[in-house]
Specification:
By secondary structure, the protein is mainly alpha-helical. It is about 75% helix and about 0% strand.
Length: about 260
């Protein structure tokens, strides 16, 4: 038993590195970070993936309690967290788009009395659920796991990702939070703008009409109708946002596309 102890410790030291990188991805990535995907499932999934990728590489034996080991732990966690953060920007984009649509429709006050999602409007909740279905339907979870497994070739253990280029890539990609939200919400917002102009003309033509009693339900019904008509365009933009996010993850991890 004493002869096996050094080998067991060595296997633990080498198995720790893929486990840390994959576990960090599970914490930050969409779908995997949802409360429905509980902690036990995350740990089990990370352990299975680490076990599958373990025989494919030569892992360095580094004591995790040493200074070099602590730095390497931070590097592995940073790789997984940054890859997941890039895709979380897509989720934030849809939240901003939902806020813009909700404000135009007149549902901006609904989130003040909603105890489920806090300050996330109802439209944003719908867009997040729809984007999650698009993500899973397009195989985004499999693509993401494939990228993080491929990263062990391009970013082997001992390689640091904490550089100015990585920070600049994430900062540039974060601007998509505003550009993407405009692209998603633009069809509905432009149509609602013309409806607002029409209500203004009606108010000037009939000043005695209570515009609040007529305009609010009219904007609400028009907003839902326009979202139903524009759902194909919205889903297409969601798919485009996910694809752009995967491209940024590839750039970050150094994985070649295709």
């Amino acid at each position: 038993m004493q002869l096996l102890a050094p080998e067991i410790v060595e296997r633990f030291y080498t198995f720790l590195w893929p486990m840390l990188r994959i576990s960090a991805l599970m914490i930050a990535a969409p779908i995997f970070s949802l409360p429905a995907f509980n902690l036990r499932l995350r740990v089990l999934t990370a352990a299975v993936l680490a076990w599958l990728v373990y025989p494919l590489h030569d892992w360095p034996v580094i004591d995790p309690t040493s200074a070099q080991g602590l730095v390497e732990i931070f590097n592995q966690l940073a790789i997984g967290l940054m890859a997941g953060l890039i895709l979380q920007i897509v989720v934030a984009t849809l939240v901003v788009a939902g806020q813009a649509i909700a404000a135009a429709v007149g549902l901006s006050m609904a989130n003040m009395i909603d105890a489920n999602m806090g300050n996330v409007p109802v439209i944003s909740q719908f867009l997040i659920v729809l984007a999650s279905l698009v993500f899973v339907g397009a195989g985004g979870h499999a693509i993401l796991l494939g990228l993080i497994l491929e990263s062990f070739h391009t970013l082997p253990v001992g390689t640091s990702i904490l550089s100015q280029d990585s920070y600049g890539l994430i900062v540039r990609w974060s601007s998509m939070m505003f550009l993407g939200s405009v692209l998603v919400a633009l069809p509905v917002m432009v149509a609602l703008l013309f409806i607002n102009v029409g209500l203004g003309v009606v108010t000037r033509a009939a000043p005695s009409m209570n515009i609040f009693a007529v305009g609010f339900p009219a904007m609400l019904m028009a907003g839902f109708l326009l979202m139903w008509l524009a759902i194909g365009s919205i889903v297409g933009r969601m798919e485009w946002l996910w694809l752009q996010g995967f491209d940024v993850v590839r750039q970050l991890l150094g994985v070649q596309s295709g």
